[in-house]
Design brief:
It comes from Sutterella parvirubra YIT 11816. This is Nitroreductase domain-containing protein. It holds the Pfam family Nitroreductase. By secondary structure, this protein is of the alpha+beta class. It is 39% helix and 17% strand. It has a single domain, classed as NADH Oxidase, CATH 3.40.109.10. The longest helix has 29 residues. The protein starts with a helix and ends in an 11-residue tail after the last strand.
Length: 270
Amino acid sequence: MDDVKRLFREWRVDLEERFEALNARIEARFERRDPNEIFRALPAPSDALSVPMKAVMASRHSERSFSNEPLPDPVLADILWAADGVRDIEDAQKRTKGRVGREYDGGRTTPTSFDWRETEIYVLKANGIWRWVPERRGLLFCALTDIRHLAAYMQPAMTLPPVQLVYVSNLAKTRTRVSEIAEQLMMKFDGEVWNDEAIEELRIRNTHLNVGVKLEAVSLAAEALGLASVARTLFPTKKLEEALHLGPDEHVTAVQSVGYKAKSFLDHIR
């Protein structure tokens, strides 16, 4: 029990330090000066997601007809938790008990290769650009600008959804000690197949796989919540990455539109 309490304290300190570092990077990246409402906490995932999996999988589909009605925070919280949320803290305590030295964070709702957690989710809304922070279950404000139109290309209907999720793969986070050891072993035992180019290609392929898992999780959650959603890769990549001020190791892999389903043609009129 003492080990669990100590790990919990260490986790809280580490979480605060990482959040402050992220906040500093966002401030520098977007040249943010307004200190008001920097972080918007979202509610815990609701029971609305407690639906039969078979029924959700049977009815899941891509929907391109949206209403521009804003999504309330509880609904957005469910969607983001499904995409990349931290599991229940009580479950984390059970899993961590007796495992001294293991990071105490509860795990994520979606898996990633080598536990990289390299996918960063930006939330584009009418009131600005936000960054999802799974560890704190909330949104970090980036900039007061609406760039949802950059998440679509030659698709006027795709400018209507109130929320555009932008999945950014941060390759810097894939160069962990564990993955480097695995890559070195692969190159040592079969260097003809696993050279530097092949390893880099494998790393990028894994990041695409990781994003794909999140896309499916959001699609299922949207169906459970009665929402429309569609994943897309057709968008002006360079313009979108410039608007998000991404670094050389950060790349937009996919975009996903989420919102209420259109009920009539009037929903398509701003």
